[in-house]
Amino acid sequence: MVPQDTFALIGGSGALELLREYQHNCKRLGPAPTPFGLSAVLYRVRIQDAHFVFLPRHGEFGHELAAPWVNYRANIYALREQGVFRVFAWSGSAAINLSLSVGQYVLPHDLIDDTRGRETSFFKGTRLGAIRQHPVFCGEMRAATESVLRMAQMPHQDHGTYVCAQGPRLETPAEVRRARSWGGDLAGMTLAPEAFLARELEMCYLPLCYVARHAEGIKEREKRPGELLGEVLEEAETEAAEEARARFFGLAAAVSRALPDERGCQCGAIMDQYREEGRLEEDWHTWLGKP
Ligand SMILES: [Zn+2]
Q: In this structure, are strands 86-95 and 204-214 parallel, antiparallel, or unpaired?
């Protein structure tokens, strides 16, 4: 079990319905001012003995802020300031890999950043930032999450490459073919630069994706003009996607319980190369560049 409020869940679309369900166990802390601007709203959530911080990245209603305009730096900074050092991130994604079905969970093991123009580092104007990205995500959180999913017998794939597109528009069929040729299994818009920023502040980060739809051109389907996601899901698929999303708070609580109190991974030592060179002060605030 992790210490109180050192674990955070970053939520994707559809946070509002989940917040409603957990409102009696939820304290709204509000947005946090940071040198990089205001963060998204933070909540403190309690589920039985698990206490964690919740940050809905697209806004409290789920859709106020599309992926390109999320203030990723402010969000990660605010979580770190709150005392969080483990981040569990949920992302609704589009399946590129045909073997994935809607509603299925995927634990990505790799990430391609195909975004443009986003602020991808805290270290602008400094000489810091050459940080390893292999493995991209925290191994300790991955092992804990896999064991939780296995014990709960939830269908999941324990690997996958996530291709992060700029958005907000959906991908073109040719972009999906290109992502597939790169080895992509999932397309989404949110994990980059979120994962990279968390690593810069020596936080553990693990995404858990659920398949919300198929990427364009992957599966020929009836299209209804004006349909939000451009695809008509079968009823069973819509239900499966909703069910997968509805479990995120419970999963976050279970993962936080399954993790050891002290970190046994390397995420907290990622800046050691700079420490050894005597280029880092102890206080992480002093590492950051100008906004
Ligand atoms: Zn870690």
A: parallel
